[in-house]
Write a structure and sequence with these properties.
Blueprint (H helix, E strand, L loop, with lengths): L1 E3 L2 H13 L4 E6 L5 H13 L2 E6 L9 H6 L4 H11 L3 E3 L3 H4 L20 H4 L3 H16 L3 E5 L3 H14 L4 E5 L19 H7 L1 H12 L5 H14 L4 E9 L15 E9 L2 E8 L3
Helix pairs in contact: 7-8, 10-11
């Protein structure tokens, strides 16, 4: 695995690879890697000649400074995991490398209602920061395919919208959520949970499965209220939202209708760790 720290050097190398007909897949990360990330590496390797990953903890997408400070950093372990997974290139940029002009006058992305619902309602400015860093990374790597995980489902929709707005020529591939044997979605934030909290956190998956199994037999608003109560009564300290929304626009749904494509999405906090998850619940 080749490690680049400078964007110009990486771009020149990848241009040379494209000139000899090699295709590139890209897996952007913020480090603290787990099997969800390496599964995307494997996905890329099946369809692209070169697989590039990046590790960059992007400050502009953290609306909570404490959350940014507490984000786990496991660089040595991350490099080993990527190497074992067969990643070809790792991009390890500094903040100055990604934001050479600083944080003043950032671009504004008109991503519509996606910016203000669910995650957007609770993390103001978060998705603007996501768009900002992903556009910058795509301009450096210029991959043919971008690999993202379904756990961050709303984020995948936001990134697709940004790509459409900026006319970037890349295909977005969304890989399924990787889960622990308990059902808990793999997340870098899981590292901050105690063993007891990890056990309690599995209730998110259990609730999502319950919703999927009962989506046709109970009113949607009752299912949402029941899900929130279950989380709060089984160890979670707060629930930002538990919503059953339509695909692909994430709009609220009051009544289940024939051919509704629905996804249950949630964000809940246990201790000081905020977890998100989702599950397609359409029959």
């Amino acid at each position: 695995m080749i490690i680049f720290k400078e964007s110009n050097s990486l771009s020149k190398y990848l241009v040379a690879q494209r000139n000899i007909g090699r295709t590139t897949g890209f897996v952007p990360t913020m480090g603290a890697l787990h099997n969800g990330h390496t599964s995307l590496i494997a996905f890329s390797k099946k369809t692209c000649d070169l697989t590039v990953s990046s590790i960059f903890i992007n400050p502009t997408q953290f609306n909570n400074p404490d959350d940014f400070k507490k984000y786990p950093i496991t660089l040595n372990s991350d490099i080993i995991q990527l190497d074992k997974a067969g990643c070809d290139i790792l991009f390890l940029p500094t903040v100055i490398e990604i934001y050479p002009h600083g944080f003043n006058n950032p671009p504004k992305y008109d991503i519509g209602e996606l910016e203000f619902v669910l995650e957007g309602a609770h993390r103001h400015g978060h998705f603007q920061g996501v768009c900002q860093v992903v556009e910058r990374l795509l301009s450096i790597v210029a991959p043919q395919k971008l690999f993202l995980g379904q756990k961050d489902f709303q984020q995948t929709l936001v990134i697709k919208k940004m790509i459409s707005l900026t006319n970037i020529n890349v295909d977005v591939v969304v890989g399924s959520t990787e889960r622990l044997p308990s059902g808990l979605a793999m997340s870098s934030r899981n590292m901050r949970l105690s063993n007891q909290e990890l056990e309690k956190a599995t209730m998110i998956y259990q609730v999502l499965v319950y919703i999927k199994e009962h989506i046709s037999s109970q009113p949607l608003n009752q299912l949402e209220a029941y899900a929130k109560d279950l989380l709060l009564n089984h160890g979670f300290d707060s629930v930002d939202y538990f919503s059953i929304v339509s695909l692909p626009d994430l709009k609220p749904v009051d009544i289940l209708e024939h051919n509704n494509q629905l996804i249950a999405v949630t964000a809940a906090t246990i201790g000081d760790v905020r977890l998100i998850d989702n599950m397609v619940v359409s029959k």
